[in-house]
Amino acid sequence: MKHLVVFSGSGISAESGIPTFRDSGGLWEGFKVEDVATPEAWRRNLHLVQDFYNQRRKQALQAMPNKGHQVIAELEDHFKVSVITQNVDNLHERAGSSRVIHLHGNLFESRSSIDETLIYPIDGWELKMGALCEKGSQLRPNIVWFGELVPMIEVAAKIVTKADLFIVVGTSLVVYPAAGLVDYVPFDTSIFVIDTKPVSLYKTDRVTHILAHAGKGLTDLKEILIRDY
Prior knowledge:
elongated, alpha/beta, three-stranded antiparallel β-sheet, about 20% strand, six-stranded parallel β-sheet
């Protein structure tokens, strides 16, 4: 069974009604990135940051997986599928994908604000002030904020090196270090890029571009993959 690696970005979740930073002029639900998505913001106004992510969590719970998420899950019937996502929602899991790596963290997890190895699930939408880790520090969202290291990047890179097929969907490949994962794709692996706009990728000799929204593009690609691979 061939190993299919899917690298997804915010474009796939946008089809479920979850807005993106770039489509909002650098804002996220009206907030500047530096006010809600940096370690400095947490130290400056942790109540604001906590409430911001509580609202994002509530929004994500109301969203439903779309056709794109569903097709990726369905591909597990034909391939070994690994999903590497820049998204912090759980729509891939809710659609049925069984192997999902979250590069930028998970909305439905909290972590210690003094020990990043202490991670806890969040039941529901609210992470309350006063909720403490076992070392006594306030729990924060388990999100990789701007300026922080991406702890899962090495794990993701190793997965990409073993890809027989590689799909890029819903990401413009401009956010690093995540965008650099494409460099780990084996030289003889076919790459498929699904986006509504052309995505610049130097490996042009083995890249197939599908100009479409995630749901439509993945539906069409599924037929090609099953037929040809």
